Task: structure prediction
Amino acid sequence: MNATPGHTGAPRTSVGRSRWRTALRAVRRPSVLPRVAVSLGFAVLLQQAIASHAWNLALITFGTFLLSVMNLLRQQVLTREGARLNSIRVKADNETRFRTLVQYSTDLITIIDGADTIRYVSPAISRVFGHEPLDVEGRALREFVHPDDVVPMLGFLTEAAKPSSRATTSQWRLRNAGGSWCRVENVAVNLLGDESVCGVVITTRDVTHRVALEEQLLHRAFHDELTGLANRALFTNRVEQALLRASRDAHRTAVLFLDLDDFKEINDSLGHAAGDSLLMQGADRLRACLRAGDTAARLGGDEFAVLLEGCEDSGEEAMQVAERIANAFARPFELDEREAFSTASIGIAISSGSEAGEDLLRNADLAMYLAKKRGKARVERFASHMHEEVVERLDLLADLRYAIERDELQLEYQPIVDLETRTVSGLETLVRWDHPRRGRIAPADFIPIAEQSGLIVAIGRWVLLHACAHARHWSRSLPELLPVTVTVNLSARQLGDEHLLDDVANALRVAGLRRDQLVLELTESTLLANSEETVGILTSLKALGVRLAIDDFGTGYSSLSYLHRFPVDVLKIDKSFVAGVHGGPGASALASAVVALGNSLGLRTVAEGIESEAQFEVLHALGCKFGQGYLFSHPLPPGDVMAYLTLHGQRASVSDARSQLTPLQQDDAM
Ligand code: C2E
Ligand code: MG
Ligand code: MG
Result:
């Protein structure tokens, strides 16, 4: 508001105001010099008139002096009155300005009495919150405040009403006329001592949108965008706090670390949208398995974590939750109108009272790692020896890389016996690792590491070459015997290797072994891992002329329908079926069914792990054709095989002898 040019009223700007104040001061303290000069002039005139006895002139001079003095006094009175009127006008202008400001302000101004009764509320209340001032004035402020915020609000007012208080601020939720809650920010000033106000003045600002944005930003900073679960930062923080609480109330804290087993395959084959959908469904399943106070987080990729507070020492509860989660993940996921499976491997770590949150998370991660290594889709609880186990595993892997070139791998051969004649029809190749420091290591302890690292491809190639060479050597050296088959175990990783066919053909060629003397063994889970491709590879292997066997039959998959799809020749009945087979008809029922199934499909049946005569008798009676086990022989070093074959080999007739030649040699002979 600028002062209007030529405006004669009270100056409105601060500059105008100060000029006016100077003028007023001038009126209050008029300069005395002109007055002294005029008075002296009159005095000289009067003195001259009296000296010359001009009494008329003296009277006129005195009269004029009196009139001047009176005029001067009148002028001064008028100026003072003008200044007073101006001051009244400025005050009125100020009041109008403040009223307008209050009227149109987006902030709400409320005057509260000493308690919490609303004495005055500015008209902004109808614009901002939809209430009419008259409906609000006279009522208690708490009627409009969210029940959860009433106590802090009253505390704020009490603080503001203290004589020594300065401006204080607080936030609470205020109900608008529509019934919804608005977030408001309040500043209070104590004007109880000001006569014109007599109350606590609260300036209220609607910050609903600002707070909502702040909350959104905060949520983003601590949550995973895709699943809405806590992120790593929030999870680690909650674990730390839980550990603090646990140390006070002598409870345990459990962390579950969860990794999806086949997520990468699904993501790669069905696309990222399907992968995201799986993660979201997984997050929902996780939430459904937890109590309200538990925290579920996505740590990144397909890794999730769960925090359980207030657990007992045994960790029983954490184990139950983990199993509930594992079961939930075992169900198929619906993706793009197709079903996909992605089980979960879970590691559990339970606080001992001394570790930091990071340690607990790392221990759970380690247990999960071992759950994966031990076959996936399982739950492992952390134990202190796991650290060593992992380190040992890494050491072993480092050494295994050099095992072939340092000539540390050895082969043993276990005879496969014709149960009718108890003579040897084949030999299963079993690899061993003679470690320079640890001694002999069984395949169960290094084959999984070799598979995991991919080293199995090179090891498998080495086994094939040596097994074929040995078999050829024994066939040549013992021409009076029927040629034995040599069986080589293949792992899933080898089946997926593009050079497998070449490796097999090469091993046969280099050794000069008859193709049907080689049998390749695969476990059920290997066959089913990628069944369409597997059928293609197996068909190509069959086309080479080698034979195929299903190893450990009955342990992998319950569906038998796949048996028709794979071009296999041999069914090896797992030793778990054989173990109790001599315990009566009930105990042998399963083995009997498997033997019958193999025979009905026209497959050779081989019972693994026959350790006793009783087992042998039953299996033979059930119609199983071949067997293998400690009853006949433990796996033999190559140097002992010749002697064993000489004793237990199958005698060849003259016509059989010709068939011992390799296909190449047979061609040459014709
Ligand atoms: P598998 O192919 O089922 O081999 C049979 C396992 O049963 C061998 O264990 C053998 O020593 C054992 N066994 C034989 N007769 C009996 C018996 O009467 N009683 C009992 N309790 N066990 C018996 P091994 O040599 O420790 O081999 C374990 C597994 O390691 C093999 O199971 C096979 O899956 C794997 N494996 C061995 N060599 C190789 C290989 O060169 N390549 C691959 N990929 N895997 C191999
Ligand atoms: Mg085998
Ligand atoms: Mg087996």
Summary: The CA atoms of residues 254 and 318 lie 7 Å apart. The radius of gyration is 50 Å. The pocket of magnesium ion (ligand 3) is lined by residues 551-552, 572, 608 (CB under 6 Å).
